[in-house]
Structure formats: C-alpha cells, structure tokens
Recover the amino acids of this structure.
C-alpha cells in the first residue's frame, strides 16, 4: 500500500486494526494486489495525486481526523473517480473490520 | 516446456465446464479441465465470509465494470467456479425467453422440449429443492410484504440437499458434476491459468498455460488437445479468445442484472446464515426483488453507503438487519476487452436512462415491500441516501438514485459470445462452436443471448449439456468456417 492508502486505513479502522493483528490492513493490501492491474494502476495514480494534495494541505503529517476530513471532501468532489476513491477504501476497511469482528 | 496431451481441453470448471466435462468423460473422451483457481473442499469456507472472498473470489471480489455509474461484480475463481460462491438459486430458462432468443439469433434446435429434457437430466444429478418446513424469517418477510401489497411472490428452488434434520447443503459443482467427471476419468488441473490458445489455420491445437505449484513457483506448460472448450464465464472466455486472436463478435454485448440494495432493520433478530430464497415476482422478468447475504460485514457495508456517520450505532443492532435487493433486466450493454500487457480484461458497461429509471422504480418497490413486511428503517445503497422509515419517505429515493450517487453491483454476467446462426451478431454457432474455427467451442454463460432476469445457472447447465451432446453426436450447423 502507498502512503495515503496506509493513512486512510489507519484513520478508518482506528484501534481495530491493531486489535486484529493488522488483519484489516492485510486484507486491504491483499485486495489491492488481487485487483485487476489496470484498476490498481488507476488507484495508484489517485493515491499519489491525492496523497500529494493531502501532504500539502496539512503540511506533511496529517492526523487521523484530518485524513477523515480530506476523505469527506473527496466524497463531495464533482469528479467521479475522486468520489469513488474514498468509497473503495472505506468499503474494503468496513467489510474487513466488521467481518473480523464477527469472527 | 513440459507438454500435456489430452483429447479434450476444457478451460474453466464452473457450471458450463463441469457439465461439459462430465458428459464428455462419461462418453469415453479423455478430458482435462484447466482451472485457474485452487481446488478447495466444498465446505472449506463459511459462505460469504471474508475468508471466502479471499480464497474463492476472482480479485477477492474487488472488480468493477467501468462506466457511469461503475458497477461492482463478482466471479468465482476456484474449482466449481461461481457455483461455489453464489446463493444456489435455480430457475429454468423461461419458455418465452427461449423462443425470443431462438427467433432473434436463429438458434437451431433450441425448443422448449429439448431444453426441458436437458434441465431434467441436470436436476437429477444436482438436487433441486425447496426448504423443508418453514422458510427462515428473512425469506418470510418478503412473502409477508408481498401478500400485504397484493403482489406475487414465490420461494425459488435452489440446488440444495437437505438431511433428515432439515440442514441444507448447497450442491455446487465441486459436490456434483466435478466428482462425476473425475469418476469418469477427467483430470482436473487446478491453479492452471491459460495464457493463450494455439492455432493452426482454422484449428486450435491446444494452449499455453502457467501452473502455480504448491511452493508458489510457476511452471509453463503446453497442453495439446484435439478439441478445446472455453468455459471461463462471460468475462474470462471472451478475454482468452481475444488474446488468442479470435475477435469476430467476441466480447461485445455484455449483459447482466444491475442491482441496487437496501438494508432493512426490523424490530427483532433475523437469520443471517443463509440467503433469503423468496422472490417478489410481481414485476418479473424486468424487475426482481430478493434477499442478499447479510453477514455482519455485508450489513455494515450496506449501512455505510447511506449513513456512514451512524454506522457505529446502527451496527450494534445488526442482528435485526437484513440486506435485500432489486435487480433489473437492463437495456444497456457492455464490453469485455483484452488489453496488451494486462492479464485482466477491461470491462465496461453503459446503463441507459431507462435502466436508471427502472432501478429507481425497483428501489421504491423494494422499500414498499420491506415496510409492508414490518421493517422500521431502510438504508439504501446510495451515497448518503435518505434513510426511510415510512411509505411517504420512499419518494425521496426517486431523486436520490442518480448516476453519481448510486452504488450498484451485479453477479449474473452473460452474452459476450452469443450463439446462433445469425453470424453477423453471434460469436459462435447454435452449439457453441466459435466462428472461423473447426474445433474451438465456448460452453458457458457467454453463449446466452441476454441476461434472463433470474439466476442463469440452470440455463447455463442445460445449454452446456445440450451442446456437449451435439459435440459427441458430431452435430453442427456445418457453417462455422465457411460463413466466416
């Protein structure tokens, strides 16, 4: 996973990821690796571009709260692929988070 | 490079490939199935769980048809194919659809009696049944809601076998056709990805494949075969054909059932171990309402679509919540396109305005039936979609289900190598032989001219059996090469 992807997973999963032994991060990472290469390429481009924006906006090291605020902004973006980026990350995290809790 | 020889190579082991293998092997043919995914024991994973997604789903379930809106889809990638991961619903191809397809695409020997004969033979092997006794509460809810509204509903049969205590076991291909094929001598090669088919003129001579060995290393092999059946499903089959140089009417015309979901909260705990088997058929075949997998993970996803800020509180009552869906027959269509340098094909789909309108109508009808069944809170799969608690609120969903905010998915992918004698708009003849070839066949969901409005596995299996018998009998339309 890239920098922004790791930060987003950490911000969304919170302590659940640590409690599950990193299982949530692992699932998101393996989903990215399993994803069709052309889709993964698109996500990588967004992660780099949006990551640069977030670093500039929050001067390098955003808090989890700031990451969540940035995600909320992306979800309201008029560009479809920008809106879909946080939705993809959130879907993977939420599914893993609550499935792990179930098991 | 090691060479493997076989009489018949079958690529893929799902509903089409397994039925084909069993029939050909039982007729004495030497058959090899090359399956890209692993071979698990049928009950190795809890259905619809995270582990199952990781192990048995292609791309771990993270795949989508690009378009506006994008639509998530799922395929199985294991021995047994998508029959291992679906809900097991079984519905014979409706007679009127068979007639429509036959007339539109000039499909030979495609009458009701023939298809019914093959369907009956399949059903004898795979066990098709309804639930003994009372259906689970999540199913009863759909029946109750439909009755209250004066709508038709029905319990769909499934490929399930029940023991004397009423415990059901899904009869996937790995429990039914695969053991039968193996008993007749079929060799299964799991973890075997076909890179491309090899051809000489109008004949296919085999395939180049990569086998993933138990230690994770890769071995390239050449599989030589007299005849080849491609049965990888409506995404992988056209992609393999395109990679191998077959492109005539291959990959276009993708069809599926765009689906929108609603998480319904009731006032007491419901069952979550099974998928509801009731369907509201009042608007079938254009619109079907049914139930989805509702484990904690799926419930959380459904709530997060509409109300991410309420997820933490609502999920505490997740046992009261069940996920339901409305699926439509779509006027739109899509394309599968193999891309140089990429293993997975590009999949695109265009939803028409009429499709979006029909989906919105389906969403509202779904809300109506759930409220009539006693649901007290409805969460639609719309980004920040309005949460509805009464019938008056359902009107807000008409405006909310836009291309930008809808979150759609699908599972029934078909029609990328249509069959029939209308050579200008089909990729294969009436029995699945690919145009411009003498010995290359497709025998899976790709052949279906349209998504049928119900789970297509019954139609796939019946048509696969019919085509396998045609192959064994030497029946063909005799025009596959000359027409090209």
């Amino acid at each position: 996973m890239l920098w922004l992807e790791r930060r987003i997973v950490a911000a969304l999963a919170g302590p659940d990821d640590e409690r599950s032994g990193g299982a949530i991060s692992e699932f998101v990472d393996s989903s990215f690796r399993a994803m069709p290469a052309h889709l993964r390429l698109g996500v990588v481009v967004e992660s780099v571009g949006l990551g640069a924006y977030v670093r500039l906006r929050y001067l390098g090291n955003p808090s989890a709260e700031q990451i969540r605020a940035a995600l909320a902004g992306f979800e309201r973006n008029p560009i479809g692929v920008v809106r879909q980026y946080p939705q993809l990350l959130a879907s993977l995290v939420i599914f893993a988070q609550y499935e792990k809790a179930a098991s | 490079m090691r060479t493997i020889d076989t009489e018949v190579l079958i690529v893929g082991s799902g509903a089409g490939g397994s039925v084909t293998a069993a029939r050909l092997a039982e007729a004495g043919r030497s058959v090899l199935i090359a399956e890209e995914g692993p071979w698990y024991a049928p009950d190795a994973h809890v259905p619809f769980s995270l582990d199952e997604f990781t192990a048995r789903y292609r791309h771990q379930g993270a795949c989508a048809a690009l378009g506006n809106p994008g639509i998530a889809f799922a395929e199985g990638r294991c021995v047994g194919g998508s029959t291992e991961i679906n809900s097991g619903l079984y519905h014979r191809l409706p007679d009127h659809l068979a007639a429509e397809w036959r007339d539109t695409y000039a499909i030979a020997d495609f009458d009701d009696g023939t298809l019914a004969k093959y369907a009956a033979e399949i059903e004898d092997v795979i066990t098709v049944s309804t639930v003994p006794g009372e259906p689970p509460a999540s199913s009863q809810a759909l029946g109750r809601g439909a009755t209250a509204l004066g709508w038709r509903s029905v319990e769909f049969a499934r490929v399930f076998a029940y023991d004397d205590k009423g415990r059901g076991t899904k009869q996937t291909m790995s429990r039914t056709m695969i053991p039968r094929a193996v008993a007749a001598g079929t060799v299964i090669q799991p973890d075997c990805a076909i890179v491309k088919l090899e051809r000489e003129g109008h004949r296919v001579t085999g395939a180049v494949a990569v086998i993933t060995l138990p230690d994770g290393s890769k071995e390239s092999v050449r599989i030589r075969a007299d005849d080849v059946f491609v049965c990888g499903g409506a995404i992988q089959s056209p992609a393999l054909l395109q990679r191998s140089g077959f492109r005539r009417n291959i990959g276009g015309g993708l069809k599926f059932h765009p689906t929108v979901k609603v998480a319904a909260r009731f006032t007491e705990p419901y069952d979550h171990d099974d998928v509801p088997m009731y369907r509201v058929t009042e608007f079938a075949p254009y619109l079907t309402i049914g139930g989805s997998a509702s484990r904690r993970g799926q419930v959380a996803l459904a709530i997060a679509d509409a109300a991410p800020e309420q997820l933490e509180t609502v999920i505490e009552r997740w046992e009261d919540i069940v996920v339901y869906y409305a699926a439509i027959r779509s006027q739109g269509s899509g394309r599968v396109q193999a891309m140089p340098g990429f293993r997975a094909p590009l999949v695109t789909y265009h939803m028409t305005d009429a499709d979006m309108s029909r989906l919105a109508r389906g969403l509202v009808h779904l809300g109506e039936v759930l409220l009539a069944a006693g649901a007290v809170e409805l969460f639609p799969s719309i980004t920040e979609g309005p949460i509805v608690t009464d019938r008056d609120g359902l009107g807000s969903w008409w405006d909310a289900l836009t291309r930008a905010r809808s979150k759609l998915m699908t599972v029934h992918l078909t029609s990328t190598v249509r069959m029939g004698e209308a050579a200008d708009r089909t990729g294969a003849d009436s029995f699945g032989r690919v145009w411009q070839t003498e010995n290359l066949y497709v025998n899976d969901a790709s052949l279906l001219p349209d998504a049928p409005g119900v789970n297509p596995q019954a139609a796939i299996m019946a048509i696969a059996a019919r085509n396998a018998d045609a192959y064994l009998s030497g029946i063909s339309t005799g025009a596959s090469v000359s027409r090209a």
About this structure: Helices of chain A lie at 3-13, 15-19, 23-34, 37-57, 64-75, 80-102. Chain A has six helices and no strands.
